[in-house]
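Q: How do we represent a protein-ligand complex in a form that can be generated token by token?
A: Start from the inputs.
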Amino acid sequence: MSAVGSVSALHGRHAIVTGGARGIGLAIARRYLADGASVALWDIEADVLAQALEALSPRGPVSAAVVDVRDEAQVDAAVGQSLRAFGAIDLLVNNAGVLGPTVNAWTHTPAQWRQVLDINLTGAWLCCRAVVPHMLARSMPPADAQRRGRIVNVASVAGKEGNGLNAAYSASKAGLIALTKSLGKELATQGVLVNCITPSAADTAVFAGVPAEHREQLNQALLARVPMGRFVEVDEVAAMAAWLAGGDCSFSTGAVFDISGGRSVY
Ligand SMILES: NC(=O)c1ccc[n+]([C@@H]2O[C@H](COP(=O)([O-])OP(=O)(O)OC[C@H]3O[C@@H](n4cnc5c(N)ncnc54)[C@H](O)[C@@H]3O)[C@@H](O)[C@H]2O)c1
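Then emit the structure tokens for the protein with nicotinamide-adenine-dinucleotide bound:
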């Protein structure tokens, strides 16, 4: 899929992409750079982040920060770093996430349960908490469209449907959908649009914790639920995230954007 949509649609915009070192986050960062934005990649894994920074640097203005989105002090410090580097934050993509254990709901340990909720839901909220005041300071009407803030939350079809054997993950993504709806309503008249994306399965490192002998079985089970019968490409998710960040998206907020090959038809 081409990385070039409407060229320069994000020219002059400054983005943070959490979990941006690989997978869907890296694809979104690549697409935002192609569309003219500057991008701060945040990720917890320093080595992978350094590789991503090296790969993306020739494509445009990009920076990287090692950030654990569970830690408000790290999030606040990285927001300050992004503001010093770019002067503003226009776009926040809450993408960092983990799958957690593939077990029955009642056999998650409390630590496993809290870890998934902390990263996928509370982490996204901490990033919103740190970034929204800066977005509001520059996006209040009558500011021009170029100054409007955009938040894109990467949820999952699991948050709509509740996947068996992934209760913590599904609950965290359902929570992220609800956070999107609440925040979207709160900011609707203040120049900041908040939306989320609910992809079906993409073939990324998110499944790295699944034992190799179970992977083929899991793939078949995942794809059996998708009428189009394939994984979503990370560039397809990035294209949706680019539209949500750009000026053509002007009357959608608190909304859930499906990208599931026909699996989830609402
Ligand atoms: N791959 C899929 O099938 C799929 C489907 C729907 C939604 N999603 C969601 O898309 C997002 C990206 O997933 P992906 O498939 O690209 O996975 P991935 O594992 O390739 O990427 C996730 C990134 O998040 C980072 N991360 C994890 N914990 C973090 C933390 N505490 N702080 C900062 N960064 C952290 C990881 O280091 C990694 O680079 C996730 O939120 C995931 O739940 C994925």
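The radius of gyration is 17 Å. Residues 18-19, 21-25, 43-45, 48, 67-70, 95-98, 119, 123, 154, 156, 199, 201-202, 204-206 surround nicotinamide-adenine-dinucleotide (CB under 6 Å).
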